[in-house]
Design a protein that fits this description.
By secondary structure, this protein is α+β, with helices and mostly antiparallel strands. It is built from 1 helix and 3 strands. A hairpin with a 2-residue loop joins strand 1 (about 10-15) and strand 2 (about 20-25). The radius of gyration is 14 Å and the shape is elongated.
């Protein structure tokens, strides 16, 4: 199989003393738009699972 793992984007905002997840999506444009809308103290993480080799 040559299936490519799907990338997930997580938008988080910093609220002392922790990061709080606001949005989890597979759409990069939506994640970046949400981060821009929120403003400061925001991060967008890109998570791509590794392919298991047999």
């Amino acid at each position: 199989m040559t299936n490519k793992p799907a990338t997930t984007y997580v938008v988080s905002i910093f609220e002392k003393p922790h990061w709080r997840t606001v949005l989890t999506t597979k759409d990069k444009e939506k994640a970046l738009a949400t981060a821009n809308e929120i403003g400061d103290k925001v991060r967008v993480e890109e998570i791509t699972p590794k392919v298991k080799k047999r």
